[in-house]
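BUG: 3D viewer hangs when loading the predicted structure for this chain

Environment: internal workstation, default settings.
Expected: structure renders.
Actual: progress bar stalls at 90%.

Input used:
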Amino acid sequence: MKLTAAVLSCALCVAGSAGGAWFSRPEEPDYAAMLNAAADVYAVADSKGEPTRLYAATAPTQDSVAAVQRIPASAAQLPWNISVSYSLDGPNVSADEIANASGLVGVHVTVRPMGGANHAANRTMPVAAFTIPTQVADDVSADSNVSVSTQDTNTLIAAAGQAGTPLEFSCYMNAKHFTMSSIALAALPSAIDGDITQLTSTASTLVDSLTDAGSGEHQQLINQLKALRANEEQLAQTVTSERAATHKQTFQNYMAAYVSSYTTHLSGSIGTSTQLPALVGTAGELSGDTPLAQAVLDLANAVNNVSAAHMHDGAVDALDEVIRRIQQQGTTGLIDDLTKEAAEEATKGAKQYSAGQSQLSAAMIPYSMKYTDVYTANLSALTGGTSANASAYAQQAIGETNSSDELKDSQAKVDAAMAALATACEHTGKSQALKQILLRFSNQFEGGSITSAKTMQSTSSDSAVHLLTQGLADSQAESFYGKAKAAQAKRKAAIARKKAQAAQQQQSQDSNASLVDDTMSMSASDVMSYANGLTSALGGGKSDSSAGAGSGSSASTNTTDDAAARQGTEKDETDAAPILFGFSQSDSGGTLLTHDMSTLIAETVEIGDAGQLIAQAVSRLNLAAVSQRSSARASAYLLVIPTV
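Structure tokens produced before the viewer hung:
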């Protein structure tokens, strides 16, 4: 067998070296001709701003849609080059530094014409546009040549230039946790109306050539997802509002219990700043069966609950994304994509919540110390500086302290930590929602991996075992390892099938059931780190900076997965990202190479979004004033540039 293979290999080499027609290298496609025939050219840039590939589309006719060719980026030079820089509170910073930053943010865009054999930049005009969520900043200002307008929940920034002439503009805003969309750059010939309509229309359907989008068969699924989104939006509003009010009251109750305890330990002349001996006495009541210890636990639960309420915001984001992707790309490959994204969001949520706990712990101790200073001064003024009968004036001093401007800086740090916890829970909620969507609607998705819930439902345990142990030689399959692998595969198949069936039964019984579990619980031992931190700050005990008042280092959502883990059942592996490129077993027993289309789909979806952005920008700009008419034909271009 080896000799036959070797002889065949030599024969192939000889045929190839002899210039045999069978193994001759195919001619390089005539990319120049493809580009010359293209009415529209699209590209998505990489992190360095360089296009990865081009999509060249011919003009659609009355009887046919636009034909699309994928072309290497090296085959042509785009007519325009764009660069983006950022500033924060004055100095320029990198994209990594500006992401999620707060302060005076500046975005500076420069678009320059590029040379080339046909000087296409001289026959096209640049239009650049991007959006900033209004929740990030709703007070955007920009140069005089820039249009700033509100589009739903986003602020649209757009500008247009002259053919062959550089375009530069800047915009500024007071941002909180800054983020922005990718920048869409269009290069339009002078026939504006027709060019932009064709450019954006083709962009929106570009993904159809890769997927089953546009067929209309997914409308029922989209309607179900939209109903769930409306329900999650309502829950996000009501649950967050209710829990925010509860947290505010519980926070005040905690501070009242804290300084009330402190008051009982005051002695002699009060003074106008914190009395450390009294504070040491208070620290002793932060643990054990005391009103102050209970107030700490109540606050911890209130913090976790108001943070968890933001899981509904994450669910809304998940549903928005899934609906948009189905509308634009159908359900092709959606199972694998969403499984991978759910795992990534779960990891982000866990890491950010842990960081938020540390941030809250670091903010609460100085806040409490500042609060005690202000309270002591107020109490001293009410009592005439003596501790005698100080408890009678405690509530009045607390009221004056709560309304004091002296706490603003310390309160801002606590609020920032709370915002970080809320953001972390949005990621966790998005992860939970994506998993539930996969389970509830897996039978309506197509193109999932062989280990998806859909497959596990539609195959027997034996079939699932075969799928999950594929690639093992017969001798391996009969070994201890192979049998253990088969047993593990059978357990995984049963768990996946059981989860999917339970989720689909819940969906059939209550189509508006929330996709997330927004409850959290923790024990008293989880929240005592604040007490330890305060005691350490006063010279005793050990500090645990991993958590603080209102946070718990081991807080977790009460999901069925966690319950299963606590009961020692099969470990939940839904956070494991799937392998999207590899070998799969066909029905006939042959081995097929499965190609990952996610990169191309993601690019074409981005291009479709950019086309909509440019269409909105053109409607806001007076392009007739800057249009330059030319008799020479020029293609229209649309480039997507990633930002932060």
